[in-house]
Amino acid sequence: MKAKYKSLLALALTAPLLTGCLEEAIPTDGVIQSQLNASEKAADAIIMSMPAYMSTPDMLGASAAYDWGYPSIMHIRDVMTADMPIASSSYNWFSSWSAANEYIGDEYMTSQFVWTFYCKQVLACNKAIAAIDPETATESQIASLGSAYAFRAAMYLDMSRMYEPLYASVGEYNAFINSDNNVVWGLTVPIVTENTTEEEARNNPRASHDTMFDFIKSDLEKAEEYLTGRSSLNKGLPDLGVTYGLFARLYLWDAGYQEEAELHPRPVPAQPGEGEGEGEGGEEAASRAASTPAQQYAQAAEYARKAITVSGATPMTENEWLNTSTGFNTLEVSSWMWGIQQMKEDGSVQTGLLNWTSWLSNEAQFGYASAGSFVQINAALYNSISDRDFRKLAFVAPESSSLSGKESYCDAEFAADFFEPYYSLKFRPNSGDTQNYQVGAASAYPLMRVEEMYFIEAEAKAHVSPGEGMDLLNTFMKTYRYSTYKSYASSMEDVVNEIILQKRIEFFGEGLTFFDVKRLDMSVTRAYEGTNFAVNEMYNTNGRPAWMNFVFVQSEGLNNAGVDKFNNPNSAALYTPVRL
């Protein structure tokens, strides 16, 4: 679980890195690019490899039980926040991220997994983009090309938000100057496209925030062009509504970065003349003087509203949330704009264990969660939910609660024997089948729901006009969650905090809270009277945790001179658990 590579040589020889985005690493059975270009069916196959790859298990071939594709990374992000305690168990393969924070340095397989997944997913997107010539493509292929650009933009936006170092207050930790005395402030990840050569990839610096913003924006503009008036094949591929949703996420990220840069400007290396990194990835981020945080927040709100309108999606109902057969396990939900459907034949399902349902559904009796790694909601977060809010019934209530006994279970007898207060009931096994993994694990997981757009719109407005943001939140909550909701927050900080609180409740377990905590410099509080976090998970931070600044695995620097010596500072083992 905490495996460390034995030698740098072994690491360099076995690791597919962002330079590996040039390699044949997706399931195309050895088909070369020229064959893809020549065959419409082959091009369609490569398009469908993008969503298919998202759930690939055991990518590293190391039998690590956290290695099951993108949903695993969603889970990683969640356990790094204060929202998701995991019941104490020797089966918790995610303890490197949730507890110790020691085994997420640049020499561990945990870091290798995250980086390698994104590299291979980018490869899938690059192959898809290269497979379609817009000048000769059919209408359906043009739509597929738009989906591929949106898919790639989503992956780069994820990576940028995870690897871009932001200020963290802990000891002598400096997020912006690494152990090589190089400035990494404002740097994201190297950019590899369908046109990048191996030679270029071997010396490919980390892109500045502004360079990455422009790159992602360009991909989304192409997606918008190719998807306007066209439908994608299914919800596994981004459509125009999703593209607008990604625009909203992009502008929210950029607005937050600009505000952060004003608070924590570019530092100066300890030794003058060193660490400037000219041409090596440490370049000064380009100034986009034409934009301000207020303008970027306005753009985020505008695109969020476009996503709501164009998608035609409507927020989930109480029955859709709490249904024991279809609760958060199917794409056939009105609010799900983008998601991945796992099929019985998929490798992830056939493992029985390395899949979304195994880890997120406490009721799936074939999975890791029910073996002891039960997923919980933070008791403090649970207690912040009104008893009138149906979302509270997605968790097991304490016996003292008026909601105790009102929860719905797939198997009430199993729940009575094993479930404790705060255990999650949100993610049901497919068809409510708790026994047969070939049915129960063939579920879907969400990548974008329309509710996120309502929250982005409200937050973005609140940063400029708190009253308007509060009105938007009140309207959403009263209309779709419980009719008596009313918040009287008035200051910008209080309104944003209330919006994020409701957003944390809404998207528990969906891998989104991490981005808000990091972007908004929010503290993680796990140690308090009545906590349900295990003793080795009881960290309290002052603002965003340093562990949210992901580090590159060492072998990326060994293979890419542009990244060598420009890794983020190691954030492992900086914190000590609080003893109550």
Compile the SSE list and pairings.
Blueprint: H1 8-14, H2 33-38, H3 40-53, H4 70-79, H5 95-100, H6 109-131, H7 139-163, H8 198-201, H9 209-227, H10 240-263, H11 293-311, H12 318-322, E1 336-341, H13 347-351, H14 356-360, H15 379-383, H16 412-418, H17 437-440, E2 444-449, H18 450-464, H19 466-480, H20 492-506, H21 513-519, H22 554-559
Antiparallel strand pairs: 1-2
Tell me the series of helices and strands, N- to C-terminal: HHHHHHHHHHHHEHHHHHEHHHHH
- Shape, per Cα inertia axes: globular
Instruction: Assign a percent range to the helix content.
Output: 40-55%
Report the strand count: 2
**Mean pLDDT across every amino acid position:** 90
In DSSP terms (H or I, runs of 4 or more residues), the helix count works out at 22
Radius of gyration: 23 Å
Proportion of β residues?
A: under 5%
What separation lies between the terminal Cα atoms? 28 Å
Main-sheet strand order equals 1-2
Contiguous runs where pLDDT drops below 50 for at least 5 residues: 1-17, 24-38, 272-287
The biggest beta sheet is recorded as:
2 strands, antiparallel
Structural class: mainly alpha
Features:
single chain, 42% helix, 22 helices, mainly alpha, 580 residues, globular, disordered N terminus, two-stranded antiparallel ribbon
